[in-house]
Amino acid sequence: MTRIGSIVNKRVKGMAAAAAVAVVCGGIALAGSPVAIAEQSTTKCYNGTGNTKKFDLPGKTDIHMNADPCITRYSSGRMTATIRIGWSEASLPAVGSGHKFDDFKINVRLERRPNGSSSDSTVASKTCTVTSTVNASWSGDTSCSVTVSGVYNSGYDWSSDGWLRYDIDNDGKGGSDWSLTGSPLIR
Fold first, then answer.
1. What percent of the chain has pLDDT over 70?
2. Which conformational region is residue 96 in: left (phi greater than 0), alpha (psi within -120 to 50 degrees), or beta?
3. Sequence-ordered alpha helix ranges (H) in the chain
4. What is the DSSP string of 90-117?
5. Same domain for 17 and 95
6. I need a labelling partner for 68 at 20 to 30 A (CA). Which of 14, 27, 48, 57 fits?
7. Domain annotation covers residue 60
8. Claim to verify: residue 83 and residue 137 sit in the same structural domain
9. What distance in Å separates the CA atoms of residue 112 and residue 98, rounded to the nearest whole number?
10. Helical H runs in 25-114?
11. Among 184, 185, 187, which Cα is nearest to 48's?
């Protein structure tokens, strides 16, 4: 065997041995770093009919939209508030230009209240402009989230809440706000 063949053979055997150790030791990667273990989480989402709306679009097919605020607590103490929206055409085939909105924003808030209280305070918030996403197709979905690490405290109930701000193209009314019903509380 040539010197280069001997070196390659030793490296292959070494990698095979490292792979065997990884299997036996339960997750040591070849580079020696631990394999990531999925973080446990609990999520609660609003699933009622209060966050459903039909948008009357002048000269175009109307669309139906739903919005679902969700709160997620992770085992690390990280908290995430998300609002997911989904939309679809109210009738087929879709008629008119795809430019449905001049502006469309999702505002999501991570809120908390002392256990037993009904007074929420905002821990963090974020506004996402999703106009181009909503205008891109007659049906779809998108979301906006805000995350804060290490904030969880069991002395509080946590929730996700927010609003949608929209300006329908060519309706002459300007912008409007749609206040959402928030997620269930998570403790």
1. 80
2. left
3. 3-24, 131-136
4. SSSS--S-S--EEEEEEEEEEEEEETT-
5. no
6. 57
7. yes
8. yes
9. 39
10. none
11. 184
Q: At residue 22, does pLDDT exceed 50?
A: no
- Please check whether residues 80 and 164 belong to one and the same domain: yes
First vs last Cα of the chain: how many Å apart?
67
Domain with 148, as residue range(s), is 41-179
- Six token digits for residue 32: 């020696």
Question: Regarding predicted confidence, which is higher, 51 or 34?
Answer: 51
Cα–Cα distance for residue pair 8/17, rounded to 1 Å: 14
3-state class (DSSP) for residue 146: strand
| Number of CB atoms found within 10 A of residue 104's CB | 24
What is the percentage of the chain residues whose pLDDT exceeds 90? 72
Is pLDDT of 11 > 70?
Answer: no
pLDDT tens digit string along 54-78? Answer: 999 999 999 999 999 999 999 999 9
